[in-house]
Design brief:
Largest sheet: 7 strands, mixed
Mean pLDDT: 94
Number of strands: 11
Order of helices and strands: EEEEEEEEEEE
Structural class: mainly beta
Helix content: under 10%
Low-confidence stretches: none
Distance between the termini: 39 Å
């Protein structure tokens, strides 16, 4: 069982930047970030794949967020720039393979004030 621990959330103002980190207890294949705002579904924010390091982004964050990983450290990062109040949510780290997500972190709160 892979354990995921997120860090880096907090309260910022609109236009600010934050970087989230997620450290896995073991080797992972696909890693991603999801977010869930109150009363809404959990949505994919960004994902990065072991093979070739290809990435995928949700439409609302394209051009503002960047996902990256350090395989030697079993860590994935989410650099979030130009934050907006609508980015406010709990951000969850996930790990999986083949398009499925098997392991989840506990989440970290990101709050963006206007």
């Amino acid at each position: 069982q892979v354990q995921l621990v997120e860090s880096g959330g907090g309260l910022v103002q609109a236009g600010d930047s934050l970087r989230l980190s997620c450290k896995a207890s073991g080797r992972t294949y696909s890693m991603g970030w999801f977010r869930q705002a109150p009363g809404k579904e959990r949505d994919l924010v960004a994902a990065i794949y072991w093979s070739g390091g290809s990435t995928q982004y949700g439409d609302s964050v394209k051009g503002r967020f960047t996902i990256s990983r350090d395989n030697a450290k079993n860590t994935v990062y989410l650099q979030m720039n130009s934050l907006k109040p609508e980015d406010t949510a709990v951000y969850y780290c996930a790990a999986g393979s083949g398009g499925s997500w098997y392991h989840w972190g506990r989440g970290t709160q990101v709050t963006v004030s206007s």
